[in-house]
């Protein structure tokens, strides 16, 4: 297509609202926090779908479904381990409220990214730890760990069952302490 070099092919812009011939800029509509919050409250992960963050929404849904599956598989066995059921039952509100909080916080980032475009994408992709976690090899490691856990729960070797019978509540405490320490170390490195 040969265009004239004097820009005579581009129509002039008119401030008249009925002028539809040429729009130099189209701004994406802002996402509403209350909509993301209500969707996340009703079905975890759907608030992230509303924000356009499909991987994050699927990841949260997968975590919740995985946790419910583990609880039902533990409780349907004849030798039910109460500490294991308690440990995995405590993960449900953690996942649920993290989903709600994250959807509300991410709404601002998505709106800034829509307003600023490429500049905001560079700023916020470096700070988002969940986005780093679900990208590439990290998601693969999480899926492998979940598969190993499913395998151990379905076969129930004696050492695994004995470990949870003996130290079930301690394992949950250790996991929470280690997660808190990891968050503290990551936050102190970011502030330096």
TrEMBL record:
Membrane-spanning intervals of the chain: 34-51, 58-76, 82-101, 136-154, 166-186
Domain of life: Bacteria
Annotated keywords: Membrane, Transmembrane, Transmembrane helix
Name used for this protein in its record: TM2 domain-containing protein
Transmembrane helix as UniProt keyword: yes
């Amino acid at each position: 297509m040969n265009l004239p070099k004097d820009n005579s092919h581009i129509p002039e812009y008119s401030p008249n609202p009925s002028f539809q011939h040429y729009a130099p800029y189209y701004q994406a509509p802002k996402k509403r926090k209350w909509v993301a919050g209500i969707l996340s409250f009703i079905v975890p992960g759907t608030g992230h779908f509303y924000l356009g963050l499909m991987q994050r929404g699927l990841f949260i849904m997968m975590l919740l479904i995985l946790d419910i599956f583990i609880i039902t598989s533990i409780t349907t066995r004849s030798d039910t381990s109460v500490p294991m059921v308690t440990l995995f039952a405590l993960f449900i509100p953690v996942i649920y409220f993290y989903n709600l909080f994250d959807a509300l916080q991410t709404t601002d980032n998505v709106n800034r990214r829509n307003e600023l475009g490429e500049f905001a994408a560079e700023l916020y992709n470096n700070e988002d730890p969940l986005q780093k976690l679900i990208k590439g090899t990290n998601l693969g490691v999480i899926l492998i760990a979940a598969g190993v856990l499913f395998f151990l729960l379905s076969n129930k070797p004696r050492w695994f069952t004995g470990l949870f019978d003996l130290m079930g509540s301690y394992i949950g405490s250790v996991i929470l302490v280690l997660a808190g320490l990891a968050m503290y170390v990551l936050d102190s490195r970011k502030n330096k």
